[in-house]
Amino acid sequence: MPVRATQDEVLAYVSRPLTRPLVGIDGLPCSGKTTLAARMVDLFNFDGIAVDEFLLPEEHWPARCRPAFPFPYIRYDEFLNAVLSLAETGRCTYLPFDWETLEISTRPREVSLADGPVIVEGISALVPLLCRVYGAKIFIESDRNTVLDVAKTRALGLWAREWGELFIPSTDMYMQTRPEERADFVVAGRGLGPVPEYLKQKPAYS
Questions:
Q1: Residue 102: left (phi > 0), alpha (psi -120 to 50), or beta?
Q2: pLDDT tens digits, one per residue of 96-126
Q3: Contact 37/48 with Cβ under 8 angstroms?
Q4: Which long-range contacts (CB under 8 A, 24 or more apart) does 107-112 make?
Q5: pLDDT tens digits along 38-56
Q6: pTM, rounded to two decimals
Q7: Secondary structure (3-state) at 93
Q8: Which CATH class for the 3-188 domain?
C-alpha cells in the first residue's frame, strides 16, 4: 500500500542507496512532477528521462487523432524501450523531441546509470510494465478540475484545443488504471496543499 509522504520525506528516501537506481514520478499534467524531479537533480545530480521527450510531431499523429492510452501522440514503444534498456543494460540512447523546431532531434541523447540514479518522469511513468524496474515509485496527487486552466497559464497554448479534447481525456484514460495504487509514495501536489497529519503513515524507510 502506498505511503502518504511529503516531498522532503521522499527526498530523504531517494538520497539513500536504492534497491534499483531508477526513480519513477507520475501524476496528472501540471501536478508538480517536474518540480520534484528538479529538486532531485539539484540536490543529488540525478539524470532524467521525461515522457514528453518522446512526443510525436503533429504531422505524424494518426488521422482524426482521438483520446487513447497508450497515448497516440507519444512514441510510446520508444519510451518503454528506452527505460527498459536503461534498467537492463545501464544505458539507453534515443532521439528526443526538439521543442524549438517541434520535430524529433537528429542528435541522439544517451542516458547512463554510471553516474548515479536516473529519474523517469511524466504521465504514465508508473505504467505496470515499468514498475518492476524502479527503486522508488512516486505519484503526485493534484486537482484534476483545474488542469486545463493551469496548462493555459504555463505557455502550453500551442495545442490549446488538443489540451481539452485530446491530452487531458487521454490522461484520464490512463488514470483509470489507478497508478497511485502502484506507487510507493503518494505526495500532495498542486492544488492540494500539505498532507493532513491524519492521512500520514509512518514512512517505510524510517
A1: left
A2: 999 999 999 999 999 999 989 999 999 999 9
A3: yes
A4: 109/53, 111/47, 111/48, 111/49, 111/82, 111/86, 112/47, 112/86
A5: 999 999 999 999 999 999 9
A6: 0.89
A7: strand
A8: alpha beta
CB 72 within 8 A of CB 109: no
Residues 6+ apart with CB under 8 A from 63: none
d(CA 85, CA 81): 6
Rounded Cα gap, residues 142 and 190, in angstroms: 5
C-alpha cell at 30: 501540471
Angle of helix 7-14 relative to helix 33-44, nearest 10 degrees, comes to 40
Q: Could you give phi then psi for residue 198, rounded to 5 degrees? A: -70, -15
Contacts of 48 (CB under 8 A, 6+ apart): 37, 40, 41, 111, 118, 119, 120, 121
Share of the chain above pLDDT 70, in %: 89
